């Protein structure tokens, strides 16, 4: 049975569902980051001088290098989720006027961002669990359940690998139209600057130069363009708030640049010296974020009940609450666990007798 409804309207429904999933990714990741950040501020380990208190775990550079990019990602996903809501509203209004021109781009954006954000969030929740050490395994930490509930998002409403292939098809179609003189618009407008991006060289000279949005954005645009061409050739508010959000923005961008440094270097987008400067600037940004890290996760405004985690409780009173929760476990209702005298004690006695022989 055939329907008279235009096939493009089906994509309109997908756009709505996937933009919702992207917004949910920010919520899930920010909960995990909130737990990990608060616990990292409460937990102290090593570094004691002259009998003073030990160092807060969050002050260790290795902890910051793992935690703060996730904090930046949570904010980035929140903002891109809001942008997708605007995109969906715009597409809906156009569809009502029988204008389908922006639907392919909206479909590609939501498909790609659904794949990106859900994969990054699933990995990020697991990383937050690791950042909490052994306590991260506890059900009372809230992290195991959060991970188990969230992971299916990588599959429902489109398997992430399949969605990335759909984005690739959209990009291929866009590139094929460049030769006909059709100029791309919106999120793919940079493709009309292919010749410039293939030849440009990064002009970063100092670590601080990586705080210029134009320098970071052009590096990412150049990487996308050059890797795409290479594949074709192979195959044929307040000031303080703004400052902190700017810092998170640059942490997110420079962390991705660091993570995919090989791509930037192999395509000649940046030089090894510039890559080193980017790493220097990234470490500097971690130090800038540290004083406000807890305030940044507190701004998510999650109640302890909603967070469902002892490790991430707002008052930081972690250890008494862990002790209290342990006493509520059925295994601790008696001093000697059930079954010890019947099963374990005879085995231990037998082992002692054997050892004496």
Question: Could you describe the 3D structure shown?
Answer:
The mean pLDDT is 88. This protein has 2 domains: 8-304, Butyryl-CoA Dehydrogenase, subunit A, domain 3 (Up-down Bundle), CATH 1.20.140.10; 317-356, no CATH class. Helix 3 crosses helix 5. By secondary structure, the protein is mostly helical. The relative contact order is 0.12. The protein contains 14 helices and no strands. It starts with 7 loop residues before the first helix and ends with a helix. The protein has helices at residues 8-42, 61-96, 103-131, 143-150, 160-176, 194-199, 213-235, 239-259, 261-266, 272-289, 293-298, 304-307, 318-328, 340-356.
Features:
357 residues, mainly alpha, Butyryl-CoA Dehydrogenase, subunit A, domain 3, 2 domains, globular, Acyl-CoA_oxidase_C, Acyl-CoA_oxidase, fatty acid metabolism
């Amino acid at each position: 049975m055939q329907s008279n409804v235009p096939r493009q309207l089906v994509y309109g429904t997908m756009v709505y569902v996937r933009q919702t999933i992207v917004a949910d990714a920010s919520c899930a990741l920010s909960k995990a980051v909130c737990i990990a950040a608060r616990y990292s501020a409460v937990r102290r380990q090593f570094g004691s001088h002259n009998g003073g208190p030990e160092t807060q775990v969050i002050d260790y550079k290795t902890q910051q290098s793992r935690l703060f990019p996730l904090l930046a990602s949570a904010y980035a996903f929140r903002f891109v989720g809001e942008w997708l809501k605007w995109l969906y509203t715009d597409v809906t209004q156009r569809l009502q006027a029988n204008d389908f021109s922006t639907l392919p781009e909206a479909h590609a954006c939501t498909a790609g961002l659904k794949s990106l954000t859900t994969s990054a969030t699933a990995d990020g929740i697991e990383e937050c669990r690791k950042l909490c050490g052994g306590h991260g395994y506890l059900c009372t930490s809230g992290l195991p359940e959060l991970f188990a509930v969230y992971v299916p998002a990588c599959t429902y409403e489109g398997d992430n690998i399949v969605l990335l292939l759909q984005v690739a098809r959209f990009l291929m179609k866009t590139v094929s139209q460049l030769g006909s003189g059709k100029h791309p618009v919106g999120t793919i407008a940079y493709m009309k600057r292919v010749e410039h991006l293939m030849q440009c060289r990064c002009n970063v000279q100092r670590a601080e130069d990586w705080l210029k949005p134009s320098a970071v954005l052009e590096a990412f645009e150049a990487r996308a363009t050059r890797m795409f061409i290479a594949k074709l050739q192979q195959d044929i508010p307040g000031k303080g708030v703004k400052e902190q959000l700017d810092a998170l923005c640059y942490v997110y961008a420079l962390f991705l640049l660091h993570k995919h440094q090989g791509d930037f270097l192999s395509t000649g987008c940046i030089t090894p010296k510039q890559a080193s400067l980017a790493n220097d600037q990234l470490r500097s940004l971690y130090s800038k974020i540290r004083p406000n890290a807890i305030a940044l996760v507190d701004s998510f405004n999650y109640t302890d009940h909603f967070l469902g985690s002892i490790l991430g409780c707002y008052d930081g009173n972690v250890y008494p609450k862990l002790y209290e929760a342990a006493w509520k476990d059925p295994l601790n209702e008696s001093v000697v666990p059930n079954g010890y005298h019947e099963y374990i004690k005879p085995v231990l006695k037998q082992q002692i007798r054997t050892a004496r022989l």
